Amino acid sequence: MARSNIEARYEIGKTIGDGNFAVVKECRLRNTESEFAMKIIDKSKLKGKEDMIENEIAIMKNCHHPNIVRLIEEFETENEIYLVLEYVKGGDLFDAITESVKFTERDAANMVADLSEALAFLHSKNIIHRDLKPENLLVSRNKDGSMTLKLADFGLAMEVTEPIYTVCGTPTYVAPEILAETGYGLEVDMWATGVITYILLCGFPPFRSLERDQEELFEIIQLGDYEFLSPYWDNISEAAKDLIQRLLVVDTKRRYTAEQVLSHPWIQSEGTYKGPNLQREITMNLEKNFGDRNRRKAGFTQPAAVH
């Protein structure tokens, strides 16, 4: 197919993100008001990684779920692959917190519930995401003011048929069993969910090396060594802490599944515990701890290797 055929179907607009292999642009289906995100992958930069994209497309085609960014259609030209995706305009998880006026435990619980719904769906198909992090959790703002979380970027997702040994992911969210190289499975997504839940409630990660020493960080993760630091956690409910303690468990057999998260009291107690507005404090901590992250990161990026 020629690019001109794609441009006859879609009006391609401004760039909204870029990665190692791809740019993401706004686009509109011609003669309609329907807007989408178009991921344009440069085949020349993909050499040797073609199967990753094929795998990403195959998995996304198989994943129709309200909490997963939807692949609408795909095209291929001589030099590029075009993925037309659902356009989620609310930014990522961090943007959603820093740009909202109010952010409470209830908002955090709703986001964790949405993420767990997506994971319960994927895991029921034995699909592992492997790259859960706030940048890959996009937020759409609903007309009633509520927010819906959608899981994006399936570049590292795969079907699990036997233990996986490939070391990959982003250091802050990587599970201890990936680092131990003893073989891992679906449970790594639940560890990352625990890390994300922790960050959502205080603005900094549970596992930190003060010297920013990666080797030390990996040792701390493998020990599962974290705490609920005062004063940041003083106003957070015991139920929230309990859920985190059931996710950040080194023993994968004892770690909560997505289904168990959905039935946990903190997730179930919809609207009963609002607690204080955490927005200002979390935003300050996010800026301090994650301020250097690439704000324009979107599209297909090779995650920071953890080796």
UniProtKB/TrEMBL annotation:
<dbReference type="Pfam" id="PF00069">
    <property type="entry name" value="Pkinase"/>
</dbReference>
<dbReference type="GO" id="GO:0004674">
    <property type="term" value="F:protein serine/threonine kinase activity"/>
</dbReference>
<feature type="domain" description="Protein kinase">
    <location>
        <begin position="10"/>
        <end position="267"/>
    </location>
</feature>
<keyword id="KW-0067">ATP-binding</keyword>
<dbReference type="InterPro" id="IPR017441">
    <property type="entry name" value="Protein_kinase_ATP_BS"/>
</dbReference>
<feature type="binding site">
    <location>
        <position position="39"/>
    </location>
    <ligand>
        <name>ATP</name>
    </ligand>
</feature>
<keyword id="KW-0418">Kinase</keyword>
<dbReference type="InterPro" id="IPR000719">
    <property type="entry name" value="Prot_kinase_dom"/>
</dbReference>
<keyword id="KW-0547">Nucleotide-binding</keyword>
<dbReference type="GO" id="GO:0034504">
    <property type="term" value="P:protein localization to nucleus"/>
</dbReference>
<dbReference type="InterPro" id="IPR011009">
    <property type="entry name" value="Kinase-like_dom_sf"/>
</dbReference>
<keyword id="KW-0808">Transferase</keyword>
<dbReference type="GO" id="GO:0005524">
    <property type="term" value="F:ATP binding"/>
</dbReference>
<comment type="similarity">
    <text>Belongs to the protein kinase superfamily.</text>
</comment>
<keyword id="KW-0723">Serine/threonine-protein kinase</keyword>
<protein>
    <recommendedName>
        <fullName>non-specific serine/threonine protein kinase</fullName>
        <ecNumber>2.7.11.1</ecNumber>
    </recommendedName>
</protein>
<dbReference type="GO" id="GO:0005634">
    <property type="term" value="C:nucleus"/>
</dbReference>
<dbReference type="GO" id="GO:0005737">
    <property type="term" value="C:cytoplasm"/>
</dbReference>
<dbReference type="InterPro" id="IPR008271">
    <property type="entry name" value="Ser/Thr_kinase_AS"/>
</dbReference>
